[in-house]
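Much of the work behind modern protein science is quiet bookkeeping, done one molecule at a time. The protein below has been through that process, and both of its lines are reproduced in full.


***
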Amino acid sequence: MTQRYPLALADDPDDLASLRMWDGNVYRDLLACRGGRMSQADFIAKHRYRTAILSLDMTGFTHASQDDGDLASLLRILDVHRVCLPIFQEFGAQKVRAFADDLYGTFAEPIRALGCAMEIHRRIEAFHAVQRADRDPCRCCVGLGYGPVFRLGPDLAMGHEMNLASKLGEDIAQGGETLLTESFHAAVRHLPGYRIERRSHPELTAPYYIAVPMD
């Protein structure tokens, strides 16, 4: 017979907040929702909002670390941060966060996120053309999502569109590509100046799109 032991659970919101996932107030609401003291509808109404998400991954990070050392990979990240942060600011990003060789930004409007992505590609190429002579210059892979997400976590965007945008940016996009979720595409499909093509991938059940500026 399997012996059962009492299960110790962390139920103090401030103690849980030490994990640095959510703040104490979010944990308090989630515990209330779990315990039936707060309805799911009330939690959603309080914490969910609609936003555009930009998820950016850098190419060559592992390669630089393996071939040129850890400092070379850190300098590679530094250069991308130096180029990208002013662009996020120019396009009115509400939130910008860096994690490893990824960058995340949220925007009130999809058109701003799309414009930011295209400008990042342009300036990264210009930076390397003028200031760097790397044998493997860094390029950026971008995924864009738009829809309702929870204003939670370090990115203030947790939910399906965040997951899809991250998947597109980190795993599917190639260097210099900007990929759109279906919801993001629906919001910008009539926008002039871009050629947008439907794509599919075996790791995704939903279609996605690639956006290319028309020069």
